[in-house]
């Protein structure tokens, strides 16, 4: 019947998340190398706020514990039971079901019992039933209602007279008293109408804003599957993206080959020799491209020319088939030599194997990553000869591989082997696990180089992301040299890698320091060998490319970045990207080229498969940041002064509303309607009369006049009228007054207006260059910080003053404000003056400064204008009954 109360520690834990969120919002980070006192003070304020909230929560929990203690006081500390044929006094908590309990006058009964022996026994059941008169107990049941049964006594009741013996039938939480206690603790009080409206408003506003953002993003070809992804997109600090199909066009074209130890061009102008159909072994290369393939030509377009027919399948295989069609009829070749066995490509093996029946024998073809295929070969086809694979051939192979890779080409190797007829006769059933095909006796045919050009706009998109503070990382399955080449073409890498630095500095890579290179290109095979220190060194770089990665490695990369504090977005289109898409804070999939698995795993889909669409989506979420980057004027108010407004200056005026007397016509106004509409910003006043539909002229006039109309037939916490007052009427007047005070201070200190735009990037901070003012004086960095602090304090004072006028206007609609309004307002002014004019507190702690009194005339003038506007508005609202209802 007891419940643990966590105390202060658990209460603080409950508020830790909110404190961390606010700290992140105001960029509260500890940097021992660059101490910032304002961050320290902000941290102290957040700790104080969290402590106060934790104390309030603890007090509420303490009250809950007090209720439990009050129930526990009804249970006696000791009881008398019969055990081993003798009476024993034991702690009441030790009583168990089946004990024989002895009770007498004056005892508190510790458990529910059925009586089997009584002597003139009466009990006081007032704590259970509320009856003040003592109830007589007997051995007969008396009533079928347990609470009224004469042969039952209950825990927490008192023996008023006599004595008796009973058998314990329920204890602790199972007793009647315990069940009442559980109901008291478990039953939650219903929320008030105000609480419901606040909760609904917060939810609806959040959903509405996210939905609007999602619709805007859809216009940028970004489909949002989950509204939470809208906010996440604006928060990501790192985007890990695949190369093929995301950064590149995924339009594969074979542009070169390495055959018979020589380079050949297949169309792109370059130094390589054009590929002639008579080149030896070309037929084998073409046959391998056509047969070792899962892609097929569309059957519905059989009457079209071969070059115009659609190929269904992977983009890489489409490029290989297009290449093969220059020399053979690929569909006929596939029909003539159908597959009898296949091992599909996987991201783990990185090769694809097929077996075909050709000229009465089984021929096995394999294509895939060159380094993997080379390990499966014992020889290479050179003209009419098969040359053993040795170190010389290995060197030529690596040279050819790098020749294509450094040009950004995707490189595939092809090989074949003729299977022995005695072991693999016609009709042989091949097995995959274990595979009965020899995997180390293939004959290497050659390399094909495939060009996949970068998408248009990717370079600008990456530059925009970097401007917004988002790091772009490439994670691909291609060769490191290919990945690096593409990364340089699109601007993802611009600096030197450790290899480049080694060549420039002419020293081994082991001796190159971290500050001597800017980019890293990491091969997937090396990831499993990295220690934590190596991971930290790699992830600390700004330009990173991971190549030849497996799905498991992609997942680890995402996890490592998240552990370093990044909010990670991952884009991809393949099945192998799915684990990373799921793990990421935001998974982004392509639409046209993506697999169903990756689309399911992602929270966001790019409808046009364009990387630039991600940037457009981010721009929708970071528009405020972009505006600051564009205008970059000195901040009108800092985070500490905002907290002073929220937590100090407005506290007194807000509390004064609690002491406001009822309005004079309160009992003449109908009660507020029960909240049932779908959104608080769309109010529907039910008049009981079906209005006629007005014409467009009258409807337009009614919409213009609506903010000035008074309607007491129904009301919610926050409706369109209130929003229009806050953001379209009173809020505008207050903002003008605050900005005017801010600008007056800048004029007071002779700050040239023509340099304000963009000045925040260079001036108004420690180490800023000197600034020439309009009075021909020079303001150093300290002077600039003082001017900025004074202008921020002016804006802060503007908020306080304007809000006091708004407070008076709001309360004066029906009656004069109560005395606590003036006390709270006066307290707010005093606190604001202390914050602004007390030395040490104004500039050291809160980052502000003294304000020239002339600057305060602007918010005072705005407040007077607010009063005049409200009186006119109120006059028009009183005449609202003369206008048609909307």
From TrEMBL:
InterPro entries: ATPase_P-typ_cation-transptr_C, ATPase_P-typ_cyto_dom_N, ATPase_P-typ_P_site, ATPase_P-typ_TM_dom_sf, ATPase_P-typ_transduc_dom_A_sf, ATPase_P-type_domA, Cation_transp_ATPase_P-type, HAD-like_sf. Residues 74-184 form the P-type ATPase A domain. Its main location: membrane. GO terms for molecular function: ATP binding; ATP hydrolysis activity; P-type sodium:potassium-exchanging transporter activity. The chain crosses the membrane at residues 39-59, 622-645, 732-751, 821-839, 851-872. Residues 634-673, 712-875 form the Cation-transporting P-type ATPase C-terminal domain. GO terms for biological process: intracellular potassium ion homeostasis; intracellular sodium ion homeostasis; potassium ion import across plasma membrane; proton transmembrane transport; sodium ion export across plasma membrane. It is a multi-pass membrane protein. This is HAD-like domain-containing protein.
């Amino acid at each position: 019947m007891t419940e643990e109360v966590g105390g202060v520690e658990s209460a603080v834990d409950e508020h830790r998340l909110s404190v961390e969120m606010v700290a992140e919002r105001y960029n509260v980070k500890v940097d021992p190398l660059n101490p910032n006192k304002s961050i320290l003070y902000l941290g102290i304020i957040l700790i104080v706020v969290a402590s106060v909230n934790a104390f309030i929560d603890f007090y509420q929990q303490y009250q809950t514990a007090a209720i439990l203690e009050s129930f526990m006081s009804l249970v006696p500390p000791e009881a008398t039971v019969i055990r081993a044929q003798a009476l024993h006094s034991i702690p009441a908590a030790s009583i168990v079901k089946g004990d024989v309990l002895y009770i007498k006058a004056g005892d508190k009964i510790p458990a529910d019992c059925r009586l089997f022996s009584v002597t003139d026994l009466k009990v006081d059941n007032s704590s259970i039933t509320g009856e003040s008169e003592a109830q007589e107990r007997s051995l007969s049941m008396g009533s079928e209602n347990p609470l009224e049964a004469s042969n039952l006594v209950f825990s927490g009741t008192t023996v008023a007279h006599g004595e008796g013996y009973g058998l314990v039938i329920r204890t602790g939480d199972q007793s009647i008293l315990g069940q009442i206690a559980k109901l008291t603790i478990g039953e939650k009080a219903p929320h008030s109408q105000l609480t419901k409206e606040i909760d609904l408003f917060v939810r609806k506003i959040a959903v509405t804003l996210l939905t609007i953002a999602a619709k805007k993003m859809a216009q940028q070809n970004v489909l949002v599957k989950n509204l939470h992804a809208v906010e996440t997109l604006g928060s990501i600090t790192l985007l890990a993206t695949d190369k093929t199909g995301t950064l590149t066009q995924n339009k594969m074209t074979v542009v070169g080959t390495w055959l018979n130890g020589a380079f050949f061009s297949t169309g792109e102008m370059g130094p390589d020799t054009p590929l002639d159909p008579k080149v030896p072994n070309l037929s084998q290369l073409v046959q391998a491209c056509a047969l070792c393939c899962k892609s097929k030509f569309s059957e519905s377009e059989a009457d079209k020319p071969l070059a115009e027919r659609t190929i269904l399948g992977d983009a890489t295989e489409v490029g290989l088939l297009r290449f093969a069609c220059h020399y053979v009829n690929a569909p006929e070749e596939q029909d003539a030599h159908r597959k009898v066995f296949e091992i599909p490509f996987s991201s783990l093996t990185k090769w694809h194997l097929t077996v075909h029946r050709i000229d009465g024998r089984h021929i096995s073809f394999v294509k895939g990553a060159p380094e993997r295929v080379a390990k499966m070969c014992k020889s290479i086809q050179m003209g009419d000869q098969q040359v053993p694979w040795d170190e010389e051939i290995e060197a030529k192979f690596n040279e050819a591989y790098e020749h294509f890779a450094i040009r950004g080409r995707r490189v595939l190797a092809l090989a074949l082997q003729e299977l022995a007829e005695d072991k693999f006769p016609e009709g042989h059933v091949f097995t995959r696990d274990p595979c009965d095909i020899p995997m180390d006796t293939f004959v290497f045919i050659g390399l094909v180089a495939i060009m996949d050009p970068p998408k248009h706009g990717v370079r600008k998109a990456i530059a925009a992301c970097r401007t917004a503070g988002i790091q772009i990382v490439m994670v691909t399955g291609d060769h490191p040299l290919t990945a690096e080449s593409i990364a340089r073409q699109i601007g993802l890498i611009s600096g030197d890698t450790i290899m480049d630095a080694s060549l420039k500095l002419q020293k081994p890579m082991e001796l190159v320091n971290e500050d001597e290179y800017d980019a890293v290109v990491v091969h997937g095979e090396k990831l499993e060998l990295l220690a934590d220190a190596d991971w930290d060194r790699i992830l600390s770089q700004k330009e990173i490319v991971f190549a030849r990665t497996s799905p498991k490695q992609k997942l680890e990369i995402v996890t490592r970045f998240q552990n370093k504090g990044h909010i990670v977005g991952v884009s991809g289109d393949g099945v192998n990207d799915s684990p990373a898409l799921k793990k990421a804070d935001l998974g982004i999939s392509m639409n046209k080229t993506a697999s169903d698995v990756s689309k399911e795993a992602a929270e966001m889909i790019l409808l046009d498969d364009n990387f630039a669409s991600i940037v457009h989506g981010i721009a929708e979420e970071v528009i405020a940041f972009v505006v600051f980057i564009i205008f970059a004027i000195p901040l009108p108010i800092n985070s500490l002064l905002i907290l002073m407004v929220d937590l100090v200056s407005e506290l007194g005026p807000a509390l004064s509303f609690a002491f406001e007397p009822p309005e004079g016509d309160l009992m003449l106004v109908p009660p507020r309607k029960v909240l049932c509409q779908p959104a608080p910003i769309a109010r529907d006043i039910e008049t009981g009369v079906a209005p006629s539909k007005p014409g467009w002229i009258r409807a337009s006039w009614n919409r213009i006049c609506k903010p000035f109309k008074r309607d007491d037939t129904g009301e919610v916490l926050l409706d369109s009228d209130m929003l229009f007052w806050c953001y379209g009427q009173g809020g505008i007047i207050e903002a003008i007054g605050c900005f005017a005070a801010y600008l007056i201070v800048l004029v007071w200190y002779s700050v040239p207006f023509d340099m304000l735009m963009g000045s925040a990037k260079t001036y108004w901070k420690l180490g800023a260059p000197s600034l020439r003012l309009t009075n021909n004086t020079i303001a150093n960095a300290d002077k600039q910080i003082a001017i900025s602090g004074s202008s921020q304090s002016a804006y802060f004072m503007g908020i306080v003053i304007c809000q006091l006028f708004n407070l008076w206007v709001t309360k004066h609609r029906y009656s004069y404000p109560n005395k606590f309004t003036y006390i709270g307002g006066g307290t707010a002014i005093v606190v604001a003056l202390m914050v602004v004019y007390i030395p040490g507190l104004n500039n050291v702690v809160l980052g502000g400064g003294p304000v020239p009194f002339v600057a305060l005339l602007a918010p005072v003038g705005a407040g007077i204008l607010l009063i005049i506007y409200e009186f006119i508005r109120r006059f028009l609202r009183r005449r609202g009954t003369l206008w048609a209802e909307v």
